[in-house]
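Support case: zinc ion complex. Customer-provided input:
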Amino acid sequence: VIDRVALGIDIGGTKVAAVLVDSAGTVLARERGPVAPESNEAALASIFAVSDRLFDTYGRDRTQLAGIGAGAPGGIDWRRGVLTGATNLAWQDLPLGQALSERYGVPAVVDNDVNVAAWGERCFGGWPVPIQHLVFITVGTGIGAGLIESGRIVRGRRGAGEIGHIPLLENGPRCKCGLVGCLEAVASGPALGALGCQLAAGGSPTLLALAGGNAKAVTAEHVFAAAQQGDTGAQWLLERQGYYLALCVLISWRMLDPDVVVIGGGMAEAGPPLFEALWSALRRLRPDRSWGQQIGGTDARRDPSEYAVPTRLGADAGAVGAAALVLQPEAGFVEEGIISLPSR
Ligand SMILES: [Zn+2]
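Agent response - structure generated as follows:
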């Protein structure tokens, strides 16, 4: 039996990552390259270049290819497969789905990058039981969420899940969206880095040393490292970070009551220190307080380490998730003609 394979493409602000994934979610090959932001034509050329290279290195014929999925930031008209535009990219109404489909001769679907990461975790996250309600929170340069409710991605009218732009602090820092005190302005990677800079300038020798003596060069990674080395100021920042991340979990919990919240994005790579801080805050906030029953058991309560978990797909979550939209199409995708797949 020849297994079906899908091409998954994760388009970021500066890079394109592409993977070939089989129906079990195994990554067969990976490729990456820069993305050209300056025009629709340049963007397409850079995406094609990475995909072509992937097929070259994979070195097998393309008859197994069932379809292509792509995830991208910014506005997406997912029914038409069109990228309508993103703040730091100059694309305008880029018909990515059609272009991919024409070039490689298979169906193609396009969706928001966080939505596809959520879908990837749902399909290939290794859950003991099928997951119908899942929230994926990405924390890195920005903060956003992908929402899956009853086995379907929640998209709203144009784009649901923008939890990073809930203004939580009345007198907080200004956000790049124009509002004041957004979660993203308070708790993204750059926000934590900025607080680390202040801490280093105010006299944290550990932090200053980690940043090579330059207080302005302190990043979120330095803060995590300093906390590990026992710097009390950095430990406080880590605790604060855990609290705001817990608020993201709590907000999504109150809205959707999911089975699980998966946390990914650049900051999740900090690993145990960040998750210990998150779980400790969640033990106080108790999103599961009113639960009666859960998947896999009848315990009234679970520990946060069981329901607020790090991504299992790691840096591949976006690309694998895009492929998952093809390999395990969302309910309604085939029926509504968003993707047509050849039968096995
Ligand atoms: Zn904002």
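The pocket of zinc ion is lined by residues 165, 175, 177, 179, 182, 184 (CB under 6 Å).

Case will auto-close in a few days if no follow-up is received.
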